[in-house]
Amino acid sequence: MDTLLRYVVEPLLPPARPLNMVRVLRITTTRQCWMQCAFCDFSQYAPLVGHHTASPAISPDHIQQAVSAASYDLIKVRGGLTVWEPWSYFVQLVRHISSQSRAPIQAFSAVELMHFHRVEKIPLRDMLDELRWAGATSLGPGGGELLVDEWRETVAAHRLRSAEWLSIQQLAMESGLQSRAMLLVFHGITPELIQSHLHALQAIRDLSVIEIKPLRTASSPMAYWDPPHLLELLAVVQAIRTQWPHVDIVMNRTLLSEDALTLLHHHGVNHVYITAKEIG
């Protein structure tokens, strides 16, 4: 902790940027997944092979009223991983959402793309172009929780390796999608892990957004892990701001007290997600 404190002992200066509250519509297509990542707090296990009864993914008609009934600053579409719906279903879902709303759409992540690339043998670039055509404006940062392969093999053995995640992000930018990264912060995260992750992110040209996600463990296999201390979050914010003075740093409002939000804003957080509605 003494090493982390060096990031936060500077005088509390006025924030360099205003704090932007982002109203988010969150759409989860399915909560079933075969990956069993230890930090996942919403997926129900659904094996890739063998007998299993899976619920169908959310239908476009189910979300139509919610999408068109209110104004949002961002629509985030995510899902677990099964083989019950084809990739074309997800492309049409994004297309349907974009026809109902003018809000930017963050659609799925490199994890979903690699899954369907392997299952349906569709080239990754073609899938990204299809998402862009459907109306997506960015690829979600999922899969980029901590770009340290030794850590990833321990808690998410089936997830992408760091190099795979980075290459898909770069392909997404070449397809015209905004670049978004993330950092999963847990109690005990070391400066070495933080710096290794940030060093890996330097491979992404024109990185525009980094979302800081405190580990939520209540309903995940990592429930015995403690949530991160505020000082650890501040250390991460300062480390990011030192390397990327102009990148947008985002956090979820529901995870922060008013005092914590004030401190994090002063140290560099300039966007906060507020969940206006959640479906799925």
Provide an overview of this structure:
The chain is an alpha/beta fold. The chain has a single domain, classed as Aldolase class I (TIM Barrel, Alpha-Beta Barrel), CATH 3.20.20. 38% of the residues lie in helices and 19% in strands. The chain has helices at 2-5, 60-69, 87-100, 110-120, 124-134, 149-155, 162-174, 191-201, 230-243, 258-267, and strands at 20-28, 32-33, 44-45, 74-78, 105-109, 138-140, 180-185, 209-214, 248-252, 271-279. The chain has an 8-stranded parallel β-sheet with strand order 6-5-4-1-10-9-8-7. Strand 4, helix 3 (87-100) and strand 5 form a beta-alpha-beta unit. The chain is globular, with a radius of gyration of 18 Å. The mean pLDDT is 84. Keywords: 4Fe-4S, Iron, Iron-sulfur, Metal-binding, S-adenosyl-L-methionine. This is Radical SAM core domain-containing protein. It comes from Sulfobacillus thermotolerans. Its cofactor is [4Fe-4S] cluster. InterPro entries: Aldolase_TIM, F420, rSAM, rSAM_sf.
Proportion of strand residues: 15-25%
- Overall pLDDT: 84
Roughly how many Å apart are the termini?
Answer: 39 Å
Shape: globular
Number of E-state strands: 10
Largest sheet, strands/sense/barrel: 8 strands, parallel
